[in-house]
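Hi all, posting the design record for the shared folder.

TITLE: backbone redesign
STEP: 1 of 1
STRUCTURE INPUT:
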């Protein structure tokens, strides 16, 4: 019998190391280029609303990609999709400094978002193909950690070069290109699951309306941070290295807060935890809007806000999955991705508008205001409805694809539901 170090579980984890190696390079590149484009757009003199629109185009592409890419996976295979879309993302990164134009950059952001949607779907499908009941939880946890920390590490590279030049864009292109190497040179099984790309939004809202609202707010807030956080930092006078630290704090601290908040949501009613997180995020953002935009206070506020905001996605998804029939988890995940994508498109546009009206402080006022709907609606649901049954919390990275639902289902030890149509009026 195989020992603990050479058994099937260990072999499965080892078999996906090349995939994680490629993924972490992609996440570092994605984290860097997201903030880099915002800073460069500011330096190029793009109007605030134009910057918001350009940055939001990424999420538009991500949304379209989540609908189109599953079909390509079935027809040409995962390695071709991963390689081709990675090449697309690298080409987009290298093109930005050549054509500093709002329309061109919007199209490049759209292409990059579409490409990364396909990459996420391919990676998550591969992980699910290698997962077993014994390894699912560790694979999912490692995946979430790699995505979050990779994005955060990318922010810290902003100080490694001058955003007005082409070096940092070249670095992004190199990272994405090298990320393809371990995936292309190591054998990985082609997943067999079909990934649904549509779901009835009416049915999704029926399962858990508060969860759907929370996903939309998480998308709007997270999209605004990624799209305009670097612009805000630049406008209040932070150096490029300080902007990187400002952005990275939100992500790195969020990696540590995900599971404590998840544990609380397993122990206490999920709606109450969502309410508490929403109140904390809104209060933190409004406080930051009043603070002088320098010093430790601003960085502390950014860290606290990120620690509350990014786990909101997992909390909301868990609340929806508490209600969703087990056989519909993957199609529900497709609907969740759609809602998150819409929120991510709308959020930066709203935030950019408030920054035009109120100046840089409009960034934090917008981030705070986004949580008012969840606060109000959570109170209504808590007062008017009984506590729904809950499954175990599963921490997920924002922007995960429908494929990750296949992985999360078994990882959460989810028991089968007796009634396919069961739902929680949450």
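Okay, here is what came back for every position:
SEQUENCE:
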């Amino acid at each position: 019998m195989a020992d603990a170090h050479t058994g099937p579980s260990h072999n499965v984890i080892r078999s996906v190391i090349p995939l994680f190696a490629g993924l972490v390079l992609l996440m570092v590149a994605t984290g860097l280029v997201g903030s880099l484009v915002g800073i460069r757009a500011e330096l190029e003199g793009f109007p605030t609303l134009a910057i918001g629109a350009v940055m939001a185009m990424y999420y538009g592409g991500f949304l379209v990609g989540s609908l189109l890419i599953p079909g390509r996976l079935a027809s040409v295979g995962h390695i071709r999709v991963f390689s081709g879309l990675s090449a697309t993302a690298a080409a987009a990164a290298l093109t930005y400094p050549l054509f500093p134009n709002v329309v061109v950059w919007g199209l490049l952001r759209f292409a990059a978002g579409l490409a990364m949607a396909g990459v996420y779907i391919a990676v998550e499908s591969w992980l699910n193909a290698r997962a077993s009941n014994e390894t699912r939880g560790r694979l999912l946890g490692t995946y979430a950690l790699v995505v979050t920390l990779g994005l955060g590490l990318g922010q810290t590279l902003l100080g490694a070069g001058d955003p007005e030049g082409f070096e940092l864009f070249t670095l992004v292109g190199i990272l994405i290109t090298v990320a393809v190497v371990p995936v292309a040179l190591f054998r990985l099984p082609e997943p067999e699951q079909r990934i649904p790309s549509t779901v009835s939004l009416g049915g999704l809202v029926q399962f858990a309306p508060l969860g759907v609202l929370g996903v939309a707010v998480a998308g709007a807030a997270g999209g605004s941070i990624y799209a305009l956080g670097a612009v805000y930092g630049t406008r209040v006078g932070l150096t490029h290295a300080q902007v990187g630290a400002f952005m990275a704090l939100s992500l790195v601290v969020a990696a540590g807060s995900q599971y404590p908040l998840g544990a609380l949501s397993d122990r206490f009613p999920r709606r109450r935890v969502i309410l508490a997180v929403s109140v904390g995020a809104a209060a933190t953002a409004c406080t930051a809007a009043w603070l002088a935009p320098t010093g430790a206070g601003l960085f502390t506020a950014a860290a606290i806000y990120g620690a509350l905001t990014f786990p909101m996605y997992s909390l909301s998804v868990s609340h929806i999955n508490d209600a969703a029939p087990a056989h519909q988890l993957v199609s529900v995940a497709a609907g969740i991705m759609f809602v998150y994508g819409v929120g991510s498109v709308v959020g930066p546009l709203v935030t950019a508008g408030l920054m035009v009206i109120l100046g840089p402080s409009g960034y934090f006022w917008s981030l705070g205001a986004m949580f008012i709907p969840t606060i109000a609606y959570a109170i209504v649901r808590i007062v008017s409805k009984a506590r729904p049954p809950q499954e175990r919390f599963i921490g997920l990275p924002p922007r995960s694809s429908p494929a990750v639902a296949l992985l999360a289902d078994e990882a959460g030890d989810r028991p089968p539901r007796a009634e396919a149509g069961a739902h929680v009026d949450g």
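COMMENT: The radius of gyration is 20 Å.
Let me know if anyone wants the other runs.
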